[in-house]
Amino acid sequence: MKKHWYDYLWILSSLYLILGFFNILFAWLGLLCFFIPLIIAAVRGTKGYCNRYCGRGQLFGLLGGRFGLSRKKDIPKWMKSKGFRYGFLIFFFAMFFVMLWNTYLVFAGAGELKQVVTLLWTFKLPWHWAYHGTLFHPGVAQFAFGFYSVMLTSTVLGLITMVLFKPRSWCVYCPMGTMTQLICRARNGKA
Amino acid sequence: MNTGKKRRQAVVEKKDCVACGCCVKVCPKEAITVIGGLFAQVDTDRCVGCGKCAKECPASVIEMREVTA
Questions:
Q1: What would the pLDDT profile of A139-187 be if each residue is shown by its tens digit?
Q2: Which domain holds residue B23?
Q3: A75 vs B17: CB contact, 8 Å cut-off?
Q4: Strand, coil or helix: what is A123?
């Protein structure tokens, strides 16, 4: 099959994770993975982002497929149920808003910048070595730490399910995927 | 065309499809498309029943079935 430029976006996704180890402010770039899928779904009514441009999906496909780091077993039934997919979306968003709230506190001067990356919403990893100050408000850095936490957490979850089930198992419960599908459903009618 | 012959074809369980498009990528015949970001659809004229999509599907919602063509 012919390769397109967008088949190499896994390089950008890997680069994103690596850059976060050197300067946390790069985490802001991750917003692209939030807005582009939503814009495509809202404007074109497709999951074009998942289907073509998602670098993370490609990365899982490559590691689990080409490199064989996957058992390639069926995902459990409950994990592909609407209940779990919507539940995970809601949970993910709740955690996202907690992160935004913490960012707001720093912007408002009511909280201090915490130079940590929180993995799986629980484990606080020291990450001060990726922070070299900012020209902007410390809140800008707080958002970066928070957003990178979201991205790293979802990557780790994706890697775990990649190993346990099929390479791109993450796609089944990816909150962005669920959300864009909901937008498409609202636009294009029921499946 | 009904020849009475049996052959294998990919069948998508649409209600559980997450429309990720993994199947589209692996199909050697370009026989699958994702419709409106909702589900994958198999072009039965093009599908040769190789089963690559069923293997790839992360939600395992594609089944290979014997059909009379």
A1: 999 999 999 999 999 999 999 999 999 999 999 999 999 999 999 999 9
A2: 6-68
A3: no
A4: strand
What are the Cα distances from residue A169, in Å, to A89, A92, A157, A162, B20? Answer: 15, 17, 10, 6, 10
- Is B56 within a domain? yes
State ipTM.
Answer: 0.89
Mutate: best of B12, B20, B32, partner A, most A CBs <10 A: B20
Specify the number of domains making up chain B.
1
Q: How far is A171 from chain B (nearest CA, A)?
A: 6
In chain A, what residues touch B41 (CB-CB under 8 Å)?
Answer: none
Spell out the domain ranges in chain A.
5-188
The answer to whether the beta carbons of residues A74 and B57 sit under 8 Å apart is no
Please give the Cα distance from A2 to A44 (Å, whole number).
24
B1 occurs within a structural domain: no
CATH number, residue B21 = 3.30.70.20
Across the A:B interface, residue pairs with CB atoms under 8 Å apart total 85
Residue B58 domain flag: yes
Chain B residues whose beta carbon lies within 8 Å of the beta carbon of residue A46: 34, 36-37
Give tens-digit pLDDT for B8-17: 999 999 999 9
